[in-house]
Amino acid sequence: MPDLNFVLPHWLYWSGLVVFPLIAMRMARRQLKSGLRPSVSLPIGYLLLITAGFIGIHRFYVKNWRGVLFLPLFFGILLSNGEGRQAREDVSLADSDVAVAEFDVEMAVEDVEADPEDAEAAARLVKATAESEAARARFTTARAGQDRWSSAARYLAITIAVLLLFDAIRLPRLVQHCKDREGQQSSDETLPEPLSSPAAELPAALARVVSVLDRTSLYSGEFVSYWAVIAVFAYYYEVLARYIFNSPTNWVHEGMFLMFGMMYLLSGAYAFMTDSHVRVDIFYTRLSRRRKALSDLLTSVFFFIFAGTLLVTGWTFLMDSFEVREVSFTEWAIQYWPVKSTLVIGAVLILLQGIARTLTDLSIVFSRAK
Fewer CB atoms < 10 Å away: N or C end of the chain? Predict the structure, then answer.
């Protein structure tokens, strides 16, 4: 199998983190607004055919059992590549043995030419010649094995490619047959909404402010949640490149490591809005609504100290990184200042959500609600 030498460009990495979630959010909301249960999609079918069609995923997607035909071909490629890697090691060792044996033959020939009557030199020449012939035989056998396994992997890959080309032509019909079997069913799913609405006791203007802040936290959390889908594709490519093409990447692990770090920072406001942060609630859950709000107000002092510190230190880190155009120390050399900018953005988002929570708690404390 050929080597994969693709390295993800920096511009594609950063634009993908922005564009993909926007497209995914739009597709999800359009499907939910239609009121129909999600069904098979031709674009998704082609996406699966291109990315994972070699194991028949596109056939399984349209609920066609013939996808199992791809599995033995794929496992045959895995076996051929595994044996091929072992054969390459055998070729390398045999080639080294040939070089050593030929050197011994040359030295023995020089000894014999220097003293034709030297029986010991003649014996060394005979032994070195025999070892050289044996090493060449091992090299020939190893090379034949490598070629055999390489050809097997190549022919299996060609077979899969032909089947995928055939399925690429038939996929629209397969998708339509699947839709006809399933039919269009209504869905009771709705668009995501903030889990807690502004307190009714808030003035209308403040209630609108709190609503805007809640939705900002909601959309930021929804946006970064789709990065998990990017990770699936990225790690899928890494496994494919490493185990099928024997070409591990130098960017997948680092790119996903940084992405999940940014995801953690940017989703803090969403977690705060939905009460998903860790809380010691042995006593908290037993309190009344007003006492819960009062407890939140008292502890909010520590929250704002933390969030403010995160904002200030994050801004310092961002400016230092931007001024020196900081990049990673790896071969990929990705820019670090966009990563550190999420410290600032995440701090701003969680501060805004903290303000929304404080306004709501104040309205509860000073209201007549129990």
Answer: C
